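Subgroup meeting minutes
Present: P.N., E.W., G.H.
Scribe: E.W.

1. P.N. recapped why we're keeping a running log of single-chain structure predictions: easier to compare across weeks, and new members can see raw inputs and outputs side by side.
2. G.H. added today's entry (377 aa).
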Amino acid sequence: MGRGANILVVDPGMGEREGRERASAIAPGSRRMFERIGAWEAIAPLAEPILQMAVMDGGVRDAVRPVQMRFDEMDGEPLAHMAMNDDVVAGLLNLCQRLGVECVRASIAGFAPRRYALETLIDGAPSALARLLIAADGARSPLRTFAEIGTVGWDYGQSAIVATIAHERDHHGRAEQHFLPAGPFAMLPLRGRRSSIVWNEASEEAKMLIALEPGDFKRELEYRFMHRLGEIEPVSRLRSFPLGFRVARRFVGPRLALVGDAAHLVHPLAGQGLNLGLRDVAALAEIVARPMRLGLDPGGPEILAEFERARRFDVAASGLGMDAMNRLFSNDVAPLRAMRDFGLRLVDRSPALKRAFIEEAGGARGAAPNLLRGLAI
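Output recorded in log:
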């Protein structure tokens, strides 16, 4: 937020808390960015480090699912941190208040081009002139719709059930990814004796599971969660979300940049949804900062074209990679199962491959934006 930059945040849900059932994995690169901008101090005490990730492949009723691949913290750095979405948003809102960023609880009703700016129409508030409008308004982005930017992609016919689960024994910072025939089942450690689950099922099956009586739902959960952590109990609402792969046909429009789910929606298999969006933010901030220091227009077409070039390949590679993994593992075809288990064990025995996977998931590999490496822009 360079000197002389006037920033306005418009959010219809400003200050609302969505509940304690949704959590996100914060990759090391995203954590470094939060540290650099001054938000991590508020988030860190509420976040749980992931020190180990175990990957299993098997059936729902298997008594034992052997670990096919294990990742451990690297160079003394956790694989990621788990934090409740509400806590992340609260930490960022607190940072905005400390920096004097104006935040308005409202919706954007549309925008119209003006000379050297966009006039942004805000429900219940005066309109605002913006040299650059950033759409971070989710998968059903109204701003993307106003700009007449379409999407391409497909639905998986799967839904993710998410909830917070309390358990009898400590998780010791261990996350687990179970590849089951209907889709991945992830157990992700939270503070205390709690974990977040992301449970993929066929959409109709997910609806039936959500509608079960508590005892029946718990029994189905135990088949997947297994008993390593003792007695378990849901301690939040159960919610389900349809899964799909969607990418905007363009990441930019005149004086408009799409970031996060407004630009791309990917499978939550590797917990990269939030981190992919934060990589958008880091890239856009770096690209925009350079012309602003020279007094140039941050919303010019050449600036936005550079942002789109910087993000298009990463988004496509990450999204299609997770799509391929979901298709490979969301079945119980014996030859495929044998092939993928062999592949998992092969990677598990290669420190170089495991390091490459960890660095890629961390978001700061190669020519990553400075913020993801903890550097100034």
